[in-house]
Amino acid sequence: MYIILAILLFGILIAIHEFGHFISAKSLGVQVNEFAIGMGPAIYKKQKGETLYALRAFPIGGYCALEGEDEKNDNPRSLTNQPAWKSFIIMIAGSAFNFLFGIILLVMLFAKADGFSVPVITSFMEGCIYESDEAFKKGDRIYSIDGHRIFSPANVSTYLQTGGDTHDIVVVRDGAKHKLDNLKLVPQQFKDGLFYGLKFEARETGFWAHIKHPLLYSIDFVRDVWRALSGLIAGTIGLDMVSGPVGIVSFVNNIGKNAETTALAIERIVYLGAFISINLAVMNMLPLPALDGGRVLFLLVNGAAQLILRRKINTNYERYVHAAGMALLLAFMAFIMYNDISRLIR
């Protein structure tokens, strides 16, 4: 059941992304030739007006085929004949819809929460050295650690565990910000394990809290993605730690099987769905060929070329770059899928 649910989740996220491109193109008068969910042979298709709507066999992708997307033609409703602002809106709409959908999932998920933890120090564990040396005081709200805004107690642990033992911390105390520069913070050994000894038991409640905290969670998701990308570039995270659709389906199945109840499993899968949706939004806007961000980059480069050289870049060059990018992307996806399957076999 959970494997089927994971596959449906991917299908929904892809549909949301492609619908963003579809509805923005339709609204701006650009011709849409096909709107497809899935890849491969069509299970169901129907021509309605100028657009072919298709459901395809493999739920691993989808597409919204726009007229003149990769080559210039004489059709006044083709994408290449539109002003740059229209193309820009259409290109970012898929990621925007994924991001918005992730926030909506979080709002729905947290609707029944009785409150949200905030990074306000309410007390200290017995023997905590950071109370005795008055580095922190009760009522301090951790505002930032090493320049990173802190939204929740979980952020405190995350950013204290990165960048060494010395940190620049800003706290809000008595309504004013106080800087604690070069503060050395290391976990202490307590009865139940290693902790920093700070207790965060304050909670925010009310309607605004139920809107604000899903937005803060979405920002955290974006920061998680950037930390992972930075780790990949720096080499601190290996490619063997990256999962694709196969690995995520397996992960969802494990979440479902290990949850105490079906309701709890669904909640955890919805939370993961929100993370993946926002992850897709960020990844698709990376300025890489074949991704939406790569197309936006070409829009900007074309704008600069027109401003400086008084002419556009040949659309054939852009098509070749995106084709090469797509080939590399497919090869990377095949490599990740191979890793996922190898892990399952092991």
Can you describe what's shown?
51% of the residues lie in helices and 21% in strands. The protein has 346 residues and is an alpha+beta fold. It folds into 2 domains: 2-109 and 274-345, no CATH class; 116-204, PDZ domain (Pdz3 Domain, Roll). Strands 6-5-7-8 form a 4-stranded antiparallel β-sheet, with helices on one face. Helix 1 (2-27) crosses helix 6, helix 5 (207-234) packs across helix 7 and helix 6 crosses helix 9 (315-345). It is globular, with a radius of gyration of 24 Å. The mean pLDDT is 88.
Summed up, what is this model?
Helix content is 51%, strand content 21%. It has helices at 2-27, 84-109, 129-132, 153-160, 207-234, 245-258, 262-284, 292-309, 315-345, and strands at 32-48, 51-66, 116-117, 123-124, 141-145, 148-149, 166-173, 176-184, 188-190, 193-195, 198-199, 203-204.
Tell me the overall shape.
globular
Tell me the major beta sheet. Answer: 4 strands, antiparallel
Quickly give the structural class: alpha+beta
Count of distinct strands:
12
Overall residue-averaged pLDDT value = 88
Beta-strand residue percentage: 15-25%
Which strand order do you get reading across the main beta sheet?
6-5-7-8
Please report the distance between the alpha carbons of the first and last residues.
23 Å
The helix count comes to 9
- SSE sequence, one letter per element: HEEHEEHEEHEEEEEEHHHHH
Number of domains: 2
Poorly predicted residue ranges:
none
Helix content: 40-55%
